[in-house]
């Protein structure tokens, strides 16, 4: 019998497995795919904070700014002193997994979780490894298995309230400007979210996120800006951008995307997933010290991660909700451009901008340009 079974070998699952194994816990980690890090369903943009937790050489580029393109064809340039890392996401996942394995985690690939259940005595997972049906038991089961979490479904957690669909390609187009991400908003580029082009060395990652529509049409509108360049690879996936009201249960926890612990404004989930894993370790360790794995004991997990990033995610979700309502109103978006395209506002954005904690810059702009509140709340 294991101490903890972790479903998923993405950053959150592997980082938790690493922390647990490093501290003497017996961990079984199950990864459904044949290779850790594949398929890639991520743009690979992270802050330097991430590398304080993970020792990885997956960086392919670093950027210091963004060009935000509005429906009128004009753009606002944002820049900041600290760098944002563009990385090979599959390599990053492998590096975190290697940390877990090196610490002693029993990591299995091609091991797909089929079902999970818990009772007062243990948790049990049914999984298929290399075609063979197997069972394993542990004191605690952790779902770190993404937006379509099998653990979440099996243990009857609620579903995420909002899912963004994404479509992204690795393109042969080479951006001369390797220092800035390009962001595209407006009715031609997305519905409910935005499009992007990320300079990644010799390739460019071009993609779009959408809400309740098909992404491919919007992707084509963005890709044409890059001369319909040769597509080298395609990846797509769902992003839950509202955290669950309850991320813990009897002998179970949910991490990262499985719990909707994702940055609502960007869809980024690596930093938030690692933060959820760090706090999950603390809660699990406390439960073992008390020999209590009940729902009441594990609710400490939610208190911990909410204390660290809950307020930010809640505010960002509200902002995203308002933006989603006006995301196809080109006239209104152009009014917003006219309102914020001022030297003092851009300077403010540059000084406060933080991809992990964007709420502070939004509040700062709203205080200086209160008419934006009317745009967001009432559509003009």
TrEMBL record:
<dbReference type="Pfam" id="PF01494">
    <property type="entry name" value="FAD_binding_3"/>
</dbReference>
<dbReference type="GO" id="GO:0016628">
    <property type="term" value="F:oxidoreductase activity, acting on the CH-CH group of donors, NAD or NADP as acceptor"/>
</dbReference>
<dbReference type="InterPro" id="IPR011777">
    <property type="entry name" value="Geranylgeranyl_Rdtase_fam"/>
</dbReference>
<dbReference type="InterPro" id="IPR050407">
    <property type="entry name" value="Geranylgeranyl_reductase"/>
</dbReference>
<dbReference type="InterPro" id="IPR036188">
    <property type="entry name" value="FAD/NAD-bd_sf"/>
</dbReference>
<protein>
    <submittedName>
        <fullName>Geranylgeranyl reductase</fullName>
    </submittedName>
</protein>
<dbReference type="InterPro" id="IPR002938">
    <property type="entry name" value="FAD-bd"/>
</dbReference>
<dbReference type="GO" id="GO:0071949">
    <property type="term" value="F:FAD binding"/>
</dbReference>
<feature type="domain" description="FAD-binding">
    <location>
        <begin position="2"/>
        <end position="301"/>
    </location>
</feature>
């Amino acid at each position: 019998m294991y101490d903890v079974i972790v479903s998923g070998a993405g950053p959150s699952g592997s980082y938790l497995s690493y922390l647990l194994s490093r501290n003497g816990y017996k961990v079984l980690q199950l990864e459904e795919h044949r290779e850790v890090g594949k398929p890639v369903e991520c743009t690979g943009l992270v802050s330097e904070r991430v590398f304080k937790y993970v020792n990885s050489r997956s960086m392919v580029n670093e950027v210091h700014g963004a060009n935000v393109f509005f429906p009128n064809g004009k753009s606002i340039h944002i820049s900041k002193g600290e760098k944002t890392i563009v990385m090979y996401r599959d390599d990053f996942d492998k590096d975190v997994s290697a940390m877990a394995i090196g610490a002693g985690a029993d990591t299995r690939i091609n091991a797909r979780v089929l079902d999970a259940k818990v009772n007062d005595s243990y948790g049990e997972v049914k999984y298929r490894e290399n075609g063979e049906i197997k069972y394993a038991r542990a004191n605690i089961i952790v779902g770190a298995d993404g937006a379509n979490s099998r653990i979440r479904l099996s243990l009857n957690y609620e579903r995420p309230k909002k899912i963004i669909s994404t479509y992204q390609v690795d393109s042969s187009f080479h951006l001369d400007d390797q220092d800035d991400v390009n962001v595209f908003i407006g009715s031609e580029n997305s519905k409910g979210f935005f499009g992007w082009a990320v300079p990644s060395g010799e390739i460019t990652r071009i993609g779009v996120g959408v809400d309740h529509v098909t992404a491919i049409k919007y992707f084509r509108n963005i890709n044409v800006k890059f001369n319909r360049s040769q597509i080298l690879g395609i990846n797509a996936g769902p992003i839950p951008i509202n955290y669950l009201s309850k991320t813990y249960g009897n002998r179970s926890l949910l991490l990262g995307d499985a719990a909707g612990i994702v940055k609502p404004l960007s869809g980024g989930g690596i930093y938030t997933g690692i933060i959820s894993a760090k706090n999950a370790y603390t809660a699990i360790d406390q439960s073992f010290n008390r020999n209590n794995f009940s729902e009441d004991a594990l609710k400490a997990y939610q208190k911990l991660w909410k204390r660290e990033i809950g307020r930010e995610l809640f505010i960002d979700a509200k902002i995203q909700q308002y933006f989603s309502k006006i995301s196809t109103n080109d006239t209104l978006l152009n009014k917003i451009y006219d309102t914020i395209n001022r030297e003092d506002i851009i300077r403010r954005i540059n000084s406060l901008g933080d991809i992990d904690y964007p709420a502070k810059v939004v509040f700062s702009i709203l205080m200086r340009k209160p008419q934006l509140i009317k745009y967001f709340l009432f559509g003009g």
